[in-house]
Design goal:
Layout lengths: L3 E2 L5 H8 L5 E4 L2 H10 L5 E4 L8 H4 L5 E5 L2 H13 L4 E7 L12 H8 L2 H4 L4 E8 L7 H8 L4 E5 L9 H17 L7 E13 L10 E11 L28 H11 L3 E6 L5 E8 L7
Parallel strand pairs: 1-2, 2-3, 3-4, 4-5, 5-6, 7-8
Antiparallel strand pairs: 8-9, 9-11, 10-11
Length: 293
């Protein structure tokens, strides 16, 4: 998606570009965004790309397509509050402070992580965090800009995951650890990329008991990254405490924790990969709590 930044442009100039097929436009001031929304065709997708104050959210929530600059928990709560009043779900990006300028806004990585994996955030039903936004330093040094952006390039493609019964905090921790591994073991020349797919299938609930069968619905989640991969000879020790996929890195705790969480949910976790080809973690987990008898 290409967003044309239309700040300083008149409605007539925007309309000329719109007539050529451009439908996404970005403004950095709420007042200008509202005025141009009212003056221009209603199929335009409007983006707020500048700093947003909480007292101005109510003016853009009825129509905004994507808010690029959410930089606080207070802002997130107010967007959700106004979205409820307008019966909308608002797409947004968390703004990360990556620049070497104090004038730039944004969350640090710890603050963003706390929001993304908090129970409180999951309860905000009228917002949809679709990614991260970082604004680099205003400089002519391309290497500095590259370095500032290097830490936020985790690209996630995912299916809509079906709901399943589980401990919310543990499931958050499970996904957090797997995504952290994708970043930690990315290729130096690559963005960290993750594809999450999901499907339902029927598996034997008593797969570990010979001669006992009861087939129930499981959710199969596959998390595939584009990182450095690993030598298959380490596959058997991957989920052991202090067992590592890479001799020179990691502490051998993360995947062990993932297995413990999966076991707690009567699930199965597996991993496959090749050097230089990334890794794929497959998790089969029951869709509902079952009777083991």
């Amino acid at each position: 998606m290409l967003v044309a930044i239309s700040k300083t442009k008149t409605p007539e100039e925007i309309l000329a570009v719109y007539s050529k097929g451009q439908k996404n436009f970005g403004e950095n001031k709420v007042k200008d965004l509202v005025e141009k929304y009212e003056a221009l065709p209603k199929d335009i997708q409007w983006h707020l790309v500048g700093h947003l104050q909480s007292n101005k959210i109510k003016f853009i929530v009825p129509f905004v397509s994507l808010i690029h600059s959410v930089d606080s928990w207070k802002l997130l709560e107010e967007i959700n509050h106004q979205a409820i009043k307008n019966n909308r779900t608002i797409n947004l990006l968390l703004q990360i402070h990556i620049a070497q300028e104090e004038t730039k806004f944004g969350l640090n990585f710890s603050e963003a992580k706390e929001i993304l994996f908090s129970k409180e955030q999951s309860e905000l039903q009228n917002i949809n965090i679709t990614g991260l936004m970082g604004m680099a330093t205003n400089t002519d040094n391309p290497q500095q800009i590259k370095n500032e952006f290097s830490d936020v390039q985790l690209l996630i493609e995912k299916d809509d995951l079906q709901n399943f019964c589980g401990d919310e905090e543990q499931v958050y921790l499970l996904f957090y650890q797997l995504l952290l591994n994708a970043v930690r073991f990315r290729k130096e020349t690559n963005k960290a990329g993750v594809i999450i797919t999901a499907k339902t299938l029927r598996l034997n609930q008593f797969r570990h008991i010979e001669g006992k069968y009861k087939y129930i619905d499981f959710l199969r989640i596959e998390i595939k990254d584009n990182g450095i991969g690993f030598d298959p000879k380490y596959k058997q020790q991957a989920f052991e405490l202090f067992g590592r996929l890479h001799n020179e890195s990691g502490r051998g705790v993360g995947l062990s924790l993932c297995k413990t969480i999966t076991d707690n949910h009567n699930g199965i976790i597996k991993i496959n990969g090749k050097p230089g080809k990334g890794a794929t973690v497959t998790i089969d987990i029951p869709l509902s709590i079952t009777d083991d008898n």
